[in-house]
């Protein structure tokens, strides 16, 4: 298992209202000056789901992420890594990137079949993972020709749809 972590400088976003001035205070209000990035690669073995979850918990604690989004992120990482191990091929790569308002989770493998939500039967054990990811994330999707599944977890004020308000028990989306 290979792991790396680093901080990257993020330049101010174009189109800001600073008129081209380089006032650090003005830029900080619009975008983060640094982002935290963590990456790890692992062989596709079931035991690595728990290791990815524990490592994610440790990294997010080091980044001082609040407990509620960190808990959501641990579950999302578990589901996405498990799906990559079961349905993908080759080594599984996890990438976490946190700036001041969201955590981006990317899980990549060498398979090209994109992840997709399935309807779980009452007796079935599978088919619920991406439903949970959708409920805990601000948004999720597939990229890189089906090789990467990603999710975005809000870390400040904006909560995912399922966490914003109490959902009706008949709401099929959450």
UniProtKB/TrEMBL annotation:
InterPro entries: Anti-sigma-factor_SerPK, HATPase_C_sf, HATPase_dom
Annotated CDD domains: HATPase_RsbW-like
Keyword line: ATP-binding, Kinase, Nucleotide-binding, Serine/threonine-protein kinase, Transferase
Gene Ontology MF annotations: ATP binding; protein serine/threonine kinase activity
Pfam families according to UniProt: HATPase_c_2
Region (Disordered): 1-25
Ranges for domain Histidine kinase/HSP90-like ATPase: 45-140
Xref: PANTHER family: ANTI-SIGMA-F FACTOR RSBW, ANTI-SIGMA-F FACTOR RSBW-RELATED
Name of the protein in question: ATP-binding protein
